[in-house]
Amino acid sequence: MNHLPNRVLKALNDWDDHQKDLEKTFQHSKMDAESVSLLRLNYLRREKNRIEKIARSDEMPFIVLLQRQIARLERELYPNLFLRVFMRLKDRWLDGPAHFSRQAAIKNANFNALTEQLRQSGFNYINGKLDQYLQDGSRLVSIPLSCQLNEVKCFTARLHFQQNIEGSYFLERIAAELLEKGGSVRSHSFELKNWPGIEATQMLNLLEGKAIKQHFLNAEGRSAERWLELGKYGVQSYHPDKPFDLHTILNELGIPLEDGRKIINQLENGHTVPVVLKSGKITRPVSLQADPANGCIRVTDVEKLNVSPIANQNSLRQKAAEEPGLTPGSLQKRKVSNRRHVKL
Question: Which domain of life is it from (predicted)?
């Protein structure tokens, strides 16, 4: 039989983790002992107010332990008896009820924000069970998910949530894996701070070896973009250069501008896009896929055989003509050298 976790012990242990986080944050500045004690007192009071009225019988002895720690901190911080009594009355009749009301509003707003985040990232089908996973107040929560793509392929993901010192949860990372015939094809842990706004379909495309275009803020806080893919040695980054221009390449393929915008959006999200190319009266169904490593769009036929890596050859020829000794082939190799390994 599985025993329910002791929420009082978890609260005490969580404070130790919070204190370590504070020490890391303020390691280059001074935090006096009184400030730390005051933070600890406020934290323990909040936890007591949160747990006391819903505590189980097996947790009641630990509530007494929690109250003793609070009383000891009060004596240290408020040696004056009258001030100490005043602070206790204030906590009981003002801070406690206000805390319940504030926590209810914060919890509701936090839950709505997480629900919207999961909806936008493509994991909205777990929203009906999200509150069941988060209701016990654990500091770390993980939710396993699995999706059978076809008879042989399966996409799994484990969503890792973390609770901050205020009690709100945030999605920290998503550990995703692509399985084929029961064996792992590729896996990666997506830290949300490095992959802002990443969606489930983008993760799947990356695990299948495709590239996506990421929009992010650089060190100067300015909007930037880069192509990313999961390679043999981890995440590979390709900073877009002029020759790899999807607009120009699609135009050379004879794809209208309006259709091209839709296709570009799909290519930048790592999708393989089916199109019909026309040459006079001849039509040919093919699939397009962005290939930033080679600065081209990979074109395959219905049998998934490469037709030709259609790149912006006109731009390459023009550039080669401007620089003596260069050929389109050498420029193509130069673009491949734009590859960088990044830790994400």
Answer: Bacteria
Distance CA 183, CA 175 (A): 16
How far is residue 161's CA from residue 304's CA, in Å, rounded to a whole number? 39
Q: Exposed, middle or buried: residue 130 (CB in 10 Å: 0-12, 13-18, 19+)?
A: buried
Residues in the chain: 344
- With residue 286 as reference, give the H or E element that holds it: strand 282-291
* Token code pair at residue 228: 């990313």
pLDDT per residue of the chain (344 residues) written in tens, 0 to 9: 345 678 888 888 888 888 888 777 776 566 678 888 888 888 888 888 778 777 778 888 898 988 899 999 988 888 888 888 888 787 777 776 776 777 778 888 999 999 999 999 999 878 678 888 887 777 889 999 999 999 999 999 999 999 886 678 999 999 999 999 878 789 999 999 999 889 999 999 999 999 999 988 887 888 888 899 998 778 998 876 556 788 888 888 888 777 788 899 999 999 999 988 887 778 888 899 999 888 888 888 876 666 654 544 444 445 445 555 544 444 444 444 455 656 66
Direct distance between the N- and C-terminal alpha carbons of the chain, in angstroms, rounded to an integer: 40
Distance CA 40, CA 47 (A): 11
CB 122 within 8 A of CB 147: no
What the block records as the tokens of 119 is 């909806």
- Residue 294 neighbours by CB distance under 10 Å: 15
Answering whether pTM is above 0.70, one says no
CA–CA separation, 70 vs 266, rounded Å? 57
Q: Alpha helices, DSSP H only, in the chain?
A: 7-25, 33-51, 60-77, 81-90, 96-121, 127-134, 200-207, 246-252, 257-268, 313-322, 328-336
**Following DSSP, what letter does each residue of 145-156 receive, concatenated?**
EEEE-SSSEEEE
CA–CA gap between residue 66 and residue 81 (Å, rounded): 20
